Amino acid sequence: MGSLANNIAAVAAVLAALVAGGSCGPPKFPPGPNITANYNGLWLPARATWYGQPNGAGPADNGGACGIKDVNLPPYSGMTACGNVPIFKDGKGCGSCYEIRCKAPDECSNNPVTVFITDMNYEPIAPYHFDLSGKAFGALAKPGLNDKLRHCGIIDLEFRRVRCKYVGGQKIVFHVEKGSNPNYLAVLVKFVAEDGDIVQMELKEKETPEWKPMKLSWGAIWRFDTPKALKGPFSIRLTSESGKKLVATDVIPANWIPNTVYKSNIQF
Ligand SMILES: *[C@@H]1O[C@H](CO)[C@@H](O)[C@H](O)[C@H]1NC(C)=O
């Protein structure tokens, strides 16, 4: 993690490289530096596109590159985006939150709206790229002009990382993935407040004292493989990007079954 000055210098270098870039074919941009949970409040430039249905959450309502399903429903309610490399971060960025706003074209309101990262798009169209749901893209417009703004297809944005807020006392939810068995447990984590993203998930069987580190499988799914059959109930320890830890004690019961949601009573 660089200092603020380093980050700014790195972004400036990327932007300078763009201006100096070749002129044949569509421009390709190297990714910007990773966006971290520093919440410095600075707005950075990005580009936005949109995908899916005009008022929908995108074609991947049922699981994009983060593996999070039903993103059209609350609490995400379709306010979702695919991030490019420094935003999606190989899945580590899943669930993180950004404020975005646009000044031009005239349809833009310049009012910030918040989106959740639930998918990836690594097309090199800008150092920072948000491929928004149709709903999120339209939400950048002045009242009544969302369709007109969507007709632009691609616009310049400003963005900044913000802490994720969930209303109504929403707690962190785990989903034991399809295909899990006593030798292979895969757990998706969602609805994580504050940083939104998880940098480490650990597992503890009730009857053993040690915490076992899980591996990031893909998206927001962490896995543990073992020749010795696992025995529930399981507790899960989460580490957020800022280094805070939380334990969901016995959140997955002894009689757990694959493809099932287990709600915790914890939240950052
Ligand atoms: C950016 O994030 C990715 C994914 O977590 C990681 O592999 C890479 O090392 C990070 N780059 C920097 C410069 O921290």
Automatic annotation (TrEMBL):
PANTHER family (alphabetical): EXPANSIN-B3, EXPANSIN-B9
Start and end residues of each Expansin-like EG45 domain: 63-169
Record lineage: Eukaryota, Viridiplantae, Streptophyta, Embryophyta, Tracheophyta
SUPFAM superfamilies tied to this protein: Barwin-like endoglucanases, PHL pollen allergen
Residue ranges annotated for the Expansin-like CBD domain, each copy included: 183-264
Subcellular localization: Secreted, Cell wall
Leader sequence residues: 1-24
Membrane as UniProt keyword: no
Organism: Panicum hallii var. hallii
Domain of life: Eukaryota
The entry's keywords: Cell wall, Cell wall biogenesis/degradation, Glycoprotein, Secreted, Signal
Gene Ontology, cellular component aspect: extracellular region
Family: Belongs to the expansin family. Expansin B subfamily.
SMART domains tied to this protein: DPBB_1 (SM00837)
Keyword Cell wall biogenesis/degradation: yes
Designated name of the protein: Expansin-like EG45 domain-containing protein
A GO BP annotation: cell wall organization
Pfam family, one: Expansin_C
